[in-house]
Write a structure and sequence with these properties.
There is one protein chain. It is built from six helices and no strands. With 96 residues, it is mainly α. It folds into two domains: 53 residues; 33 residues, no CATH class. The chain is elongated, with a radius of gyration of 16 Å. The mean pLDDT is 89.
Length: 96
């Protein structure tokens, strides 16, 4: 997907400082979990800010699932195991 880690991406985007990153890494080490979650829990970033930075770094637009009416027929197209493994949620179907 991309070569950089989340900390480098957020630093390069200018949304956190190196001090913020150090605090979040210490929090992550003490409490476990992902770096993005640590930044949010410390109040250094919002979930939307983390998502936006990752979206830009990956070149993939982010969306809010709350803006979609998820069609149950579309969900059935992806096996549950695959959806969980790849952390995806099918929202719509285009063509066949």
């Amino acid at each position: 997907m991309f070569e950089e880690n989340l900390g480098d991406i957020l630093l390069a985007a200018g949304v956190i400082t190196s001090d913020d990153l150090t605090k979040a890494l210490e929090y992550q080490k003490a409490n476990g979990g992902r770096l993005g979650r640590a930044l949010v829990q410390l109040g250094l970033l919002t979930e939307d800010e983390v998502t936006a930075a990752l979206s830009r770094a990956c070149g993939i637009p982010s969306i809010s699932v709350a803006d979609y009416a998820v069609n149950q027929d579309v969900i059935k197209l992806i096996p549950l195991e695959a959806a969980m493994e790849y952390q995806l949620l099918p929202l719509s179907r285009v063509g066949s």
